[in-house]
Amino acid sequence: MDIISTSENGKLAFGNYELPEKQKKEDFPHCGDLYKIKTYNTMTKLEKNGLFLFESVPGTNVTDFEENDNGLFFKVESDKDSQITVGLEENTEYDISIDGKSIGKIKSNGSGKVSFSVELSKGEVKDIKIVK
Q1: What whole-number distance in Å separates Cα of residue 56 and Cα of residue 46?
Q2: Do the beta carbons of residue 70 and residue 131 sit within 8 Å?
Q3: Number of folded domains in the chain?
Q4: Does residue 25 contact residue 39 with C-beta atoms inside 8 Å?
Q5: What range defines the domain where residue 10 resides?
Q6: pLDDT per residue over 43-77, tens digit each?
Q7: pLDDT band at 1, cuts 50/70/90?
Q8: Residue 75 sits in a domain of what CATH number?
Q9: Which of 46, 97, 123, 128 has its CA at a distance of 20 to 30 angstroms from the CA of residue 85?
Q10: Contact (Cβ atoms closer than 8 angstroms) between residue 45 and residue 54
Q11: Per-residue pLDDT for 120 more than 70?
């Protein structure tokens, strides 16, 4: 599995929580933007055009990653519970749902970051929606 790719549905897929050592790829083109990925078993981090977009600790596999004016949408998989931080609009309230169940509204901080936890176990994929 490549550590970053464009899926057949046109959405981004990235990360590999099974890697024992850090791998990275820079300047991956997707929809007119350039992405940088760093991933391995303890962390997955994605930047878009040099700006922070996504980080998980420990590492995760992310599929169907889509960013639009309403928020972020993706599926996440790992073999352990994960703390996820995403970069969004500054000082904006977002409703976060995991597998269709709202975990509440969270306001991004002055740098636009929002953090939340996802309970995961090997083979389990969770559908994440972060909506304004």
Answers
A1: 9
A2: yes
A3: 1
A4: no
A5: 4-131
A6: 999 999 999 999 999 999 999 999 999 999 999 99
A7: low
A8: 2.60.220
A9: 123
A10: yes
A11: yes
Cβ partners under 8 Å of residue 110, min gap 6:
90, 91
- Residue found under tokens 């994605």: 46
Q: Phi and psi dihedrals of 39, rounded to 5?
A: -155, 150
Q: 100 and 75 in contact (C-beta within 8 Å)?
A: no
pTM (2 d.p.):
0.95
Which token pair is 83? Answer: 């703390």
Beta strands in the chain (DSSP E): 4-6, 12-14, 23-30, 33-40, 43-48, 51-57, 61-68, 71-77, 82-87, 93-98, 101-107, 113-118, 125-131
Instruction: Label residue 102 by pLDDT band (50, 70, 90).
Output: very high
